[in-house]
Amino acid sequence: MACALSDIHHDCSPPIIHRDILGNNVLLDFDNEAHVSEFGTARLLMPDSSNCTSFAGTFGHTAPELAYRMKMDETCDLYSFGVELKC
């Protein structure tokens, strides 16, 4: 799952911020390789902006900076990933 997040954050231009990383949104293929799915809430991270105008995600999994200040970057997905690891 970490590799899948790294791909959308670092191998895409501009980077994609998923905003709703949950176990239900990660699919495994026959080789047990993780693939991120459900990009309905995802946004492109443009170089000149880090803010979003609407809340998206699942309460309890959303990074505080996204939930309270609408500040969006790759760390928002990492926070959700950490919550999933703890669950």
From TrEMBL:
Residues 1-87 form the Protein kinase domain. Pfam families: Pkinase. Its EC number is 2.7.11.1. One of its GO terms (molecular function) is protein serine/threonine kinase activity. Keywords: ATP-binding, Kinase, Nucleotide-binding, Serine/threonine-protein kinase, Transferase. PROSITE patterns: PROTEIN_KINASE_DOM. It catalyses: L-threonyl-[protein] + ATP = O-phospho-L-threonyl-[protein] + ADP + H(+); L-seryl-[protein] + ATP = O-phospho-L-seryl-[protein] + ADP + H(+). The keyword Aminoacyl-tRNA synthetase does not apply. The keyword Kinase applies. This is non-specific serine/threonine protein kinase. It comes from Rhizophora mucronata. The lineage of its organism: Eukaryota, Viridiplantae, Streptophyta, Embryophyta, Tracheophyta.
